Amino acid sequence: MLATAAVVGLLWAGKILFVTIFFALFLSFALHPFVELLEKLRVPRGLAAFVVLLLLCALFAFFIVNALDQAQAFSRDWPSYERKIQALTAQARGVFSRIEEGTRRLLSDGGASGVRSVRLEEGVLASISRVALQAKTVFSLLLYTAAVPMLAFFMLKDREKYSGALTRILRRKGGRAASDFAVNVAHVLSGYVLGELFVVLITACITTAGLLILKVPYSYVLGPLAGLCVLLPYVGVILSTTPAVFVAFLGTDEPFLALKVVAFYSVVQFLEGNVLTPFIVGSRVRLHPLAVLVAFLFWGILWGLPGAILAVPLTATVKVVGERFERFAPWAALLGDRTPDPEPEPEEPKPEPEAAG
């Protein structure tokens, strides 16, 4: 119990460091097959890693620029949304006015003469301190965000070097079985993370195309948002559907567009949960739904939103590692069925030595 408490305390105290490293590690797992593909085309590994990360950063920058443009459009359209919201709330003002009138009577009975209004003014130094704190927070966020692709670059570039050093350490400590164990775990997790990446991309593309066909505003933001929300178990469906329904209900004059959006998102979520994820991710990591929910709560409470995003891959890592030790296998079984070992890759036939003479 003390050891567990110490580990949890260490994870909480170093959450910024651990979150940054784990994001970079899983990103390197996802991008490793693309780097290998460029290597097969005789591109140097360092250059291949740089090109893949550069393309990913360009895609991310395109999404950010497009999101800012859509945010400006939303700010321009907000007055019309506000008028529609006011028109809807006006229908319920009768009830609220009665509650307000009753509250005023209760307050007036207590005597208004005994109540003094106090005006608080924020000092100049307090205002400057608040702005400086916000600027520090934004700068720190940008710094840690930029550290993720940099760490992923070195993990991809020097993958063979670090894996070779780790293999030598494990063989010295636990023999060949330990190094084979590390290779199997890395192989399983790499396939799982890559599969999740494809599920996110496919879900984002399908959602964006469907919203464009339905003529829902801000489709280029709502579509990628739906793809990213796949990484959040359970609440991701709500977080992706709510803004789309809100925009469809208030941003257009078509009366049934919101219902069409709800039906479309239901179909997409069904395809993602029953077709895409089982077909692409498959049985690489078999996590029980209860384990996913508990992991989502645990990592979310521990690390906030980054922990909620990393909950499933971190739990999958713990499960894959634990079930390969007899001591921890019963505990790993609580997280789900045993993950099958990867099939060994066929060895290339060695050239036969030439006959003498």
Largest sheet: none
> Helical region count?
13
The tally of strands reads: 0
- Assign the structural class, choosing from mainly alpha, mainly beta, alpha/beta, alpha+beta, or little secondary structure: mainly alpha
Order of helices and strands: HHHHHHHHHHHHH
**What distance separates the N and C termini?**
72 Å
pLDDT averaged residue by residue? 79
Shape: globular
Question: What does this 3D model show about the protein?
Answer:
- Helices cover 78% and strands 0% of the residues.
- The chain is mostly helical and 357 residues long.
- The chain has a domain at 1-86 and 132-157.
- Helix 2 (15-40) packs across helix 3 (45-90).
- It starts with a helix and ends in a 24-residue tail after the last helix.
Distinctive features:
single chain; 357 residues; mainly alpha; 13 helices; 0% strand
Question: How would you summarize what this structure contains?
Answer:
By secondary structure, the chain is mostly helical. It has a domain at 1-86 and 132-157.
Which SSEs are present, and which pair or pack?
Blueprint: H1 2-13, H2 15-40, H3 45-90, H4 93-109, H5 124-157, H6 159-174, H7 176-214, H8 219-228, H9 235-250, H10 257-281, H11 289-303, H12 305-322, H13 329-333
Helix pairs in contact: 2-3, 2-5, 2-7, 2-12, 3-5, 6-7, 7-8, 7-10, 7-12, 8-9, 9-10, 11-12
